[in-house]
Amino acid sequence: MMQGPDIGKAIFEHTSDSRVVELPFGLGEWHLPTGWHLFGIDVSPTKHVVFMVVAAILVFVTVRIAGRQIERRHREGKAPHGFGAAIEAIVLFVRNDVAIANIGHGGEKFAPYILTLFFFILYCNLFGLLPWGATATGNLAVTGTLALTAFVTVEVSGLVTLGPKGYLKTIVFVPPGITGIGAVLMALIMTPIEIIGKLVKPFALTLRLFANMTAGHFVILALLGLIFIFSSWLVAAATVAFVVFMMLLELLVAFLQAYIFALLTSVFIGMMRHAH
């Protein structure tokens, strides 16, 4: 009796990190080098690292090419069009309606960081939709590091904007109008809550992006597994149709999650800079 493919193994191999990168168009596999150590820590590249490097390069190339196209069109006295116009529209939307609109006064200083977050996460998300690709944002270490950069940006910007005394008030919180022993009691009660609130924000960013980018792949691969389990043309046709729908939905989710991460980061920066 022939044994069908191990669906669970296939799902976890696709969504987990590894030392092997599947090459496109059936060209085989690329076994990544091992044995790289720095201060006793294994820093050998993995599949997700490779796709993150490619995503970072694409962010630079995308903005560079679009910028040159727009600059050339302006020199010719013409409006941008094509690829340059599309990227310009995205950049202006993220800059004006995400960064500046939610950060408030001085938000233009953070626009490059927010734009970098958006495009980097977007490319990482889109790579996961390729048959031979991998979703680096489906790795907790990756989403946690992105959230950590947001956390540091939020807290440092608050410290610079509010000053040490104003920043301390975002930790040791006492409602206005309360003095004496009441103020002490409120500080004792609210300080742990404020600290937890600061830590929950990057934790939520980490889990939201990780969960959304992992769940879709689990669903799609599980649906494809139904074809091998039931071995029916009717089931196969229905499954393929639903998988196509899910892939289109995942394409939307890829853009949506990049937007949400950038949006929430902007909101958190604005909340800290304008704590009053």
Task: Please explain how this structure is put together.
The protein is mainly α. Helix content is 72%, strand content 4%. The chain has a domain of 165 residues. The protein is built from seven helices and four strands, in the order H-E-E-E-E-H-H-H-H-H-H. The strands form two sheets. The chain has a two-stranded antiparallel sheet. Helix 5 packs parallel to helix 7. The longest helix has 51 residues. The protein is globular, with a radius of gyration of 23 Å. 24% of the residues are buried.
Rg on CA atoms, Å: 23 Å
Structural class by sheet pairing and helices: mainly alpha
Q: Low-confidence spans: pLDDT under 50, at least 5 residues?
A: none
The major beta sheet can be summarized as: 2 strands, antiparallel
Strand order of the largest sheet: 1-2
Number of helical regions: 7
- Give the fraction of residues assigned to helices: over 70%
**What is the arithmetic mean of pLDDT?**
87
Count of DSSP strands: 4
Strand content: under 5%
- Overall 3D geometry? globular
Can you write the helix and strand succession as a string?
HEEEEHHHHHH
Euclidean distance between termini CA atoms: 71 Å
Annotation keywords:
276 residues, mainly alpha, two-stranded antiparallel ribbon, globular
Provide a quick synopsis of the model:
72% of the residues lie in helices and 4% in strands. The protein has helices at 7-15, 47-75, 82-103, 111-127, 140-169, 180-230, 233-273; strands at residues 20-22, 29-31, 37-38, 41-42.
